[in-house]
Amino acid sequence: MLYSLIVKDLLIQKRYVAFSLLYLLALIFAFQNMESVVFSAAATGVVYILLTTSCAYDEKNKTDIMINSLPIKRSQVVAAKYLAVYVFFLMATVGYIIFSNLLLLSGAPIKVYPMTLDSFMVGMVAVSIMTGLNLPVFFKFGFAKSRIVGFLLFFCLFFGVSYIMKVFQEWERVALDGAITKFIWSQGDVVILLLKAVALLAFIALSYGLSVKFYKNREF
Amino acid sequence: MEPILEIKGLRKSYGDFSIKGIDLVLEKGYIMGFIGPNGAGKSTTIKLIMNLLKKDGGEIKVFGKDNVKFEHEIKNRIGFVYDENYFYEELTISEMKWIIEPFYKTWDEKAYKKYIKKFELPEKKKIKELSKGMKMKLSLTIALSHNADLLIMDEPTSGLDPLVRSELLETLSEVIQDENKAVFFSTHITSDLDKIADYVTLIHNGEILFSESKDDILSNYGIVKGGKEILGKDASRDFVGVRQNRFGFEALTKDKNQIKRKYGDKILIEKPTLEEIMLYHTRREQNAV
Fold first, then answer.
1. Which residues of B touch A63 (CB under 8 A)?
2. Which residues pair with B38 in a beta bridge?
3. CB–CB of A69 and B98 under 8 A?
4. Interface pTM (ipTM) of the complex?
5. Counting beta carbons within 10 angstroms of the beta carbon of residue B238, is it exposed (0 to 12), middle (13 to 18) or buried (19 or more)?
6. How many Å lie between the alpha carbon of B155 and the closest alpha carbon of chain A?
7. What is the pLDDT along chain A (220 residues), one digit of tens a residue?
């Protein structure tokens, strides 16, 4: 069922999926001086376009009435939307890898910055923050109101990814006084990565919990 | 045997409107027409049954089970058709079906194909390119493709041409041949019910005015015409929706035999249609004597 709802979010916006991949390509050309953040910014943009469009189509067709008349739990409807966001992110990632490698192989006279683990992580964090803050508003008030919040978040994150990346690097470099922080920084890279992943998961879980709570109380 | 749908003391308020503790029962094997003017509470009641609105109080049982606690299980056995298209207009019929199919444990591909063929629905066409009649037929096809035991329909004939309406009613008559199924059908076009309904429930201003078998209604109710002189103290008890003019009065009675015995030759009694019964009831407050 979740699979069906996720595919639905792609099917209803086939044209936008194609458009967002073109947009990805255009950003590789446009962001010639942004180095490693090109991927993060481009992926955030793609996810923003696809998430916004899927929510807009839900609202336009008033499909909450149809979906919630089917044998499905509201928590599953919410979960499908969160999962769709990561499917969009995965598509952007694969698209970026393909485009950047094709451009590198073609020897085109432009700078191409391949995706790095850092830029992937920053992209994931940016997308998660955008989704985690936007979707509870969508599930509480519908698309019209969440669109404003979504646009502000996207604007901040799209242009703030380089800042987020700097903050990340700063956190890694500066070890603060305090036993816990010292302990964390004394661990290996894998442990630190895991801790970051856990923090991100906790944030998304909290956001999902709020969305479910709001959506369960919605009336159609 | 448990009723397929049972509502007891259902309440819901929002804004100026409220559903005021309504009761109704629908048994297996029957079609119940749920009639009332626009804004009477038909759609609200249906949305409460489907848990699209949260009730303030009362009880809704479908297949003998609470409609909220057993929502998932119940909805597997409900087919729904609403007054508007709530499918994704950007998708084709076959894409929409592909998305909906996995939700139902008992999806019946054979039945789906049968109705697609019967209604001549173009599977490759986008839903936004379909006429209103076609969209309604698509809703009905989906509703009938998972062996639903209860069909819930909210004004399905509204805005449709007579040919499509007749096709829909004919299909419902076929469906109800299976005595384990039931249909709950809201409409303000009462002529639809003349053909297919077994029971008729009238709602007005959030209250159920009556819920009776159609045959009983049509054989007991009558339109009474007579001189004003007989409109005495008993008028409000004997008649519904009294309308007076220079020559006399017209009103509805719930028991034409009793009225005939009481007033004899002073009155004339005619057979009412369901529409007239609804109109007399719903204008009662404005014209009461």
1. 86-88
2. none
3. no
4. 0.88
5. buried
6. 15
7. 788 999 999 999 988 888 888 888 888 888 777 677 788 888 988 999 999 999 999 999 999 999 999 999 999 999 999 999 999 999 999 999 998 888 888 877 788 888 888 888 889 988 998 899 899 999 999 888 888 877 777 777 666 666 666 666 666 565 455 556 666 666 667 777 788 889 899 999 999 999 999 999 999 9
Mutate to test the interface with B, among A66, A67, A215, A218 (most CBs of B within 10 A): A66
Report residue A37 as tokens: 């953040």
The DSSP annotation for A30-97 comes to H-TT-TTHHHHHHHHHHHHHHHHHHHHHHHHTTHHHHHTTSS--HHHHHHHHHHHHHHHHHHHHHHHH
CA B273/CA B191 separation, integer angstroms: 8
- Residue A115 DSSP symbol: -
Query: Domain B5-217 belongs to what architecture?
Result: 3-Layer(aba) Sandwich (3.40)
CA angle B40, B45, B50 (to 5 degrees): 150
Length of chain B equals: 289
CB contact under 8 A, B73 and A61: no
**CA-to-CA distance for B31 and B200, rounded, in angstroms?**
9
If you search the block for the tokens 């952007």, which residue do you land on?
Answer: A92
Chain B residues touching residue A77 (CB < 8 angstroms):
none
d(CA A192, CA A23): 33
CB B193 within 8 A of CB B274: yes
Closest C-alpha among A142, A73, A191, A169 to residue B71:
A73
- Measured CA to CA, the distance from residue B164 to residue B189 in angstroms comes to 14
